[in-house]
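In this section we walk through a basic example: taking a raw amino acid sequence and producing a predicted 3D structure, encoded as discrete structure tokens. The instruction is simple. Fold the sequence below.
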Amino acid sequence: SRFVFWKTGFNEAYSPKSINDEDAVRQQVVKIWKQQQAEPIAKKRAEELAKVIRESDQPMTESLSDETVTGKEESLFLTIRDTGEFTMMTQGTAASANPFQQNPPRYSVVAGAEDAGQRFFAEVFDELNEGDVGIAPNRDGSVYYIVRVKDRSPGSKEELDEMRLQFLNQGEQMAYFYMEQQLLGEFGGDWSRELIEKYNVQFFSDDSTSVDAEEG
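The resulting token sequence is shown next.
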């Protein structure tokens, strides 16, 4: 794709003194505040619906056929759909901009689960077993999904062992290297933050603060 743009101005980055500094600042603050207030309510409603499914011996489409999003009659009815099979991570088939480098893996696109992110996939793949029902938020927590795992692949120990053997025989691949670097970055960042908080580390700039050191 090609885009034509015209730069009309430039503002240095700054910390606003008030949410009324600019309309965009207020809009962002109000949006986040509303979402923070709504997320616990959405999560509670999702847990109620998950309980309905667990206590029913009917398929999800039937057990939730009369349920609405908020639980009130004037609210919209729930949308229930089969996502089909999906993996946690995927790698695009489009050619990379760099012919000597593969496209990095990314979270899969799940039909019916808009903007599914790390928390969604962690719940579905790490917390739920086949047949389990749980709730999984999207990337920013603005939507909660009630999910039931129909089946998994590999579904047996033998299939899992075969998949592991294939993985070991593939050798080093860039996709796994990207995933490894992402995990190292996340854990490294968490470790450094915990260390700074534990010892109450304070950073001072050289041009504003001087420190006297005494040898002893």
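Looking at the output, two observations stand out. Residues 23-54 form the longest helix (32 residues). Strands lie at 89-90, 106-107, 133-137, 144-148. In the next section we compare this with other chains.
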